[in-house]
Amino acid sequence: MFVDRVRIQVRGGDGGAGVSSFVRQRGRPRGKPCGGSGGGGGDVLVRASADASSLLKYSRQPHWTAGNGSHGEGDFRHGKVGTDLHLDVPLGTIVYDEDDSLIADLVTDGQEVTVVHGGRGGRGNASFVSPDRKAPTFAEQGEYGEAIWISLEMKLIADAALIGYPNAGKSTLISRVSAAKPKIADYPFTTLEPNLGVVALGDREFVLADIPGLIEGAAEGKGLGHEFLRHTERARVLIILLDPSELQETGYPEQLKVLLSELAAHSPDLVGRPYLVALAKIDTLDALDEPLAWASQAGIELFPVSSVTGDGLDELMFAVADEVDRHVREAPDREGYVLHRPLRASFSVSRDSGTWVVSGRAAERAVNLADLTVPEAADYSAKRLEYLGVDAALADAGAVAGDDVRIGDITFTYAPAESND
Fold first, then answer.
1. Where are the alpha helices (DSSP H) in 219-334?
2. Who contacts 185 (Cβ-Cβ below 8 Å, separation ≥6)?
3. Mean pLDDT, range 110-119, rounded to an integer
4. Helix (H) / strand (E) containing 384
5. Domains and their CATH numbers in the chain
6. Apex CA 51: angle with CA 45 and CA 54, to 5°?
7. How many Å apart are CA 237 and CA 378, to the nearest integer?
8. Which residue has the higher pLDDT, 347 or 266?
9. Phi, psi of 315 (to 5 degrees)
10. What pLDDT does residue 99 have?
11. First to last CA, the chain
């Protein structure tokens, strides 16, 4: 089963919690703080792999989570970092974030992009020691990993692509010139998914793709081919296969016109893509005088072929190989890319049913302590919020003393600094 577009949920691993612990010595009941920090959660990365051929496994399993970090322990023992999760995808896969914004185009083996980060591990009490805080009694909780939905869209990377009407003979042709074994039948839209085959010509070889049949209006969604038009975008060379048989209601001159029009409607870039024109099923014709005369008048180099008898296939394949070689020399390989997304604001303030809501990782980290009922921990958290500017932002938004403020799962009573004097 060929799957070339999926939507999956990815979740970073949770960070481990820090611990509050002290060295126990005779005569020093509390002793020196020695609580270790928790390990950070693993990240989720999407990685292009030459060994992946489809997105099928992601359609069957839409939820993926990286490894969690382990908790810290006493005696300065820090938790283990969670294992990163690498999701291998076929070369030519495009990655979109949950807002359908493009974030990466992965075309080379091993190219990768981090799509979500794991939660930060909580710090143990040993990390909070300072000149003013000799023996902190609090530690941080571990953070939850990010969780978002992303979309993966695969575009086949082929040297040449076969384009034609349904039943034009594309599948039969690719089966004759390569080891590909597509489904072949005599009814329209036999090919419901692209097929790839490697064509070997002595010491030369290239990858040939069989694109499902196109009809007029395919770029607007008619027929089945519109789902696969994007697979032509990666091909260096296009082979337009015309069908002169009586099975087609449209004559081959009109077929060429329609196919070129549909390619242009899908992507203007395809208009300038080099292409060869082949006339299939010549074994069903009494003579080639008429199509050759048409091609000559139209200024087209026509390659008559028969996948049944094999006539003309070598000439066509050598011409494709020459065109691919020329394209490689003149146009270097397409490079993938990863877009750098802007950093999110550290926090934001909004109003929800009479409660002020402060959202953002920076603010949530400020209150992410194991026990805020400990006065020392509450004081530390208040200072962090003030340093981040949360107090000032709430005041600017119109918060007054006594208002409820929610940060994460915790609700506070807002008390401006001047009311604490």
1. 252-266, 289-298, 313-330
2. none
3. 94
4. helix 375-388
5. 1-154 (2.70.210.12), 160-330 (3.40.50.300), 348-420 (3.30.300.350)
6. 75
7. 66
8. 347
9. -60, -45
10. 87
11. 70
